[in-house]
């Protein structure tokens, strides 16, 4: 009987692989979850908001997470504070800064799922795997399918439109943009634009003013809330300046690879569409 009970228990266990290829195994669906990045907070909240017991300092959506304990930042987690919340599962975006904290949590026996989606299909895949860990597979499948179908429809809307040369300015000092190695760069193409730095090997290249002038974007979009446009208006021959196409897109939905990513890309497409000559 004991062997039978152990076999049943093993069969009931839930196991998936995270975005680093690591196995994440739970004896039952997670009921207490800590998230350590805004995107992972949104992923879990989409499926099981009641399971959230702690989040990172930057998580602000949905509004219901505003009352939860803040137990981490982009550069690491407060391991003691996380453990005090007795989580079944921690979901995190893991860069080098966070990796040490996650290793400490794993050493304490905490299950950790690393989420690093780079496009809507990968967000959908994250939803499906997290749905298994949270006991919300049906809901996850429905949300994932909806997200993917919306993105297919969005791309179809802009297919065949006049291609607008676009530069996405991620930061001014240093001057940073995106290439087509990154989803944001490819999303410009999905919106019917041309990423003028799309061919660069680095996903987030540092570029010079001279290279921007040489590639002559007709539209420059800054993701900063209050960009300093004077560094571009001093170049009156730049097409984006000639046509008054220096635009702001300060939208967390675009910069967080979570369930609202398609909404963020739709906002990007709207900016590009507004820069396109009428009827093109």
UniProtKB/TrEMBL annotation:
Top-level division of the source organism's lineage: Bacteria
Record's keyword annotation contains Signal: yes
Keywords carried by this UniProt record: Signal
InterPro entries, per the entry: ABC_Transporter_SBP, ABC_transptr_periplasmic_BD, Vit_B12_bind_prot
Residues in Fe/B12 periplasmic-binding domain copies: 32-279
Pfam families given in the database record: Peripla_BP_2
Protein name as catalogued: Cobalamin-binding protein
């Amino acid at each position: 009987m004991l062997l039978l009970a152990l076999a049943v228990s093993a069969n009931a266990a839930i196991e998936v692989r995270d975005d680093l290829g690591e196995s994440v195994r739970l004896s039952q669906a997670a009921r207490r979850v800590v998230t350590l990045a805004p995107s992972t907070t949104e992923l879990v909240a989409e499926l099981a908001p009641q399971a959230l017991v702690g989040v990172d300092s930057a998580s602000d959506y949905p509004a219901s997470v505003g009352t939860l304990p803040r137990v981490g930042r982009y550069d690491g987690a407060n391991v003691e504070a996380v453990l005090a919340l007795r989580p079944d599962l921690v979901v995190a975006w893991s860069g080098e800064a966070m990796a040490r904290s996650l290793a400490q949590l794993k050493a304490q026996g905490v299950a950790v799922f690393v989420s690093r989606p780079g496009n809507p299909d990968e967000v959908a895949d994250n939803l499906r795997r997290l749905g298994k860990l949270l006991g919300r597979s049906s809901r996850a499948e429905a949300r994932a399918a909806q997200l993917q179908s919306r993105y297919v429809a969005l791309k179809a809307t802009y297919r065949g439109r006049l291609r607008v040369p676009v530069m996405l300015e991620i930061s001014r000092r240093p001057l940073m943009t995106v290439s087509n190695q990154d989803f944001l760069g490819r999303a410009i193409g999905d919106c019917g634009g041309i990423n003028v730095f799309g061919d660069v090997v680095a996903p987030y290249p540092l570029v010079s003013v001279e290279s921007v002038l040489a590639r002559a974007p007709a539209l420059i979009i800054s993701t900063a809330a209050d960009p300093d446009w004077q560094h571009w208006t001093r170049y009156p021959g730049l097409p984006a300046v000639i046509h008054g196409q220096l635009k702001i897109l300060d939208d967390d939905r675009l910069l967080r690879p979570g369930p609202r990513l398609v909404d963020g890309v739709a906002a990007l497409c709207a900016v590009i569409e507004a820069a396109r000559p009428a009827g093109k």
